[in-house]
Task: structure prediction
Amino acid sequence: MIYPIVVYGDPVLRKRAVDIKKGTDVSQVIADMYETMYAASGIGLAAPQIGKSIRLFVVDGSSLEEEPELLKFKQVFINPTLLDEFDEPWDFEEGCLSIPGIRQKVRRAEKVKVKYFDADWKEHIEEFEGMKARIIQHEHDHLEGKLFIDYLTPLKKRMLKGKLADISKGVVDIDYQILAPKK
Ligand code: NI
Result:
């Protein structure tokens, strides 16, 4: 099932998502999240973006052809914990399916160490770097109620105010289904 993607202004994007009870069957929600993400041409999607305040996100970087290391980066992260974020921070223009039409430079650490469960509830502790680390940081932020625009300077935020207000009213030019809080 393809869910509409919840956009900026909806309180669910600002909540800290809750842990999923170990062993819970989340296979349907995972399948739905992939389907929803592909329909919107995204490379990552966190559960709050489909209105579910649970600690789960999915990624698939294989559509980013210019980033060969992402080709096989298709993974499910359940109850993830960022144990460490380290090494030289770098800037990259990020976007988000919940904030359509806005891309801004965000500075993030080069590497992350993350503890998570996979779709079979197997626990992993793993390090990721570069673009993979960035995607994980972005999606993990969603589970903390944080959005990439929170990193912008007050001036940049002011400049985007009108656009953000439009997004929350559903006034956006995109080809995927959204759920706008002020529509
Ligand atoms: Ni996002």
User: Anything to note?
Assistant: The domain at 5-179 is CATH 3.90.45.10 (Peptide Deformylase). The pocket of nickel (II) ion is lined by residues 96-98, 138, 142 (CB under 6 Å). The CA atoms of residues 67 and 100 lie 22 Å apart.
